[in-house]
Design brief:
The chain is an all-alpha fold and about 180 residues long. It contains 6 helices and no strands.
Length: about 180
């Protein structure tokens, strides 16, 4: 199994695990209440930026929340939001993998009973995951097609060269026979 195939199957497995986990956890979502807590206000601001597709600004907001000394539940929400934001910014499978690892970190540390994470964020992120995986599959198919064309061209070239070598050997054989003394 090639390393790319191994990575793809790893990403797909991780993706499926995360989808299942998120679906299980998001069934008990409690809406975020408007709070006077500045960290909760920053989280809400980050979610708003996310919804407006200002992912860089949302990422900075979630990182700022994480860097503050905050309660574990608020930190878990910030990790979840940051993971979803990084998924949306992912350009490569490596970016996606790093974001999914962060999302898996959230899953491992989150409370299974009550959750304040916004499920719409991960739903939006899942669409992005599908786009990245689809783009990777298409790129690999194009690369495979290109490689097959190169192999076909080289095979034809080898056939031509073998034919030319056979013809030159025949000519050489004729010349050798003509040079022999009678």
């Amino acid at each position: 199994m090639s390393q790319k195939t191994h990575h793809s199957s790893y990403f797909l497995t991780l993706f499926m695990l995360l989808c299942t986990s998120v679906l299980l956890f998001s069934c008990s979502v409690v809406p975020v209440v408007i709070s006077s807590d500045p960290d909760m206000q920053k989280l809400k601001l980050g979610e708003t930026l996310f919804e407006q597709e200002h992912y860089k600004e949302a990422e900075k907001t979630f990182i700022a929340v994480l860097e503050a000394h905050i309660p574990i539940n608020t930190a878990n929400t910030a990790v979840y939001n940051l993971a979803c934001t990084r998924i949306m910014q992912a350009k490569t499978l490596e970016d996606l993998s790093n974001a999914l690892i962060l999302l898996d970190t959230w899953r491992q540390t989150s409370q299974p009973i009550i959750s304040v994470e916004n499920p719409q964020m991960v739903i939006t992120a899942q669409k992005k995951i599908a786009q990245i995986i689809e783009a990777d599959v298409i790129a690999r198919q194009l690369e495979d097609k290109k490689n097959k064309q190169i192999i076909l061209q080289q095979s034809k070239m080898i056939e031509t060269l073998q034919h030319q070598i056979s013809a030159l050997e025949a000519i050489d054989q004729e010349l050798q026979e003509k040079k022999k003394p009678l």
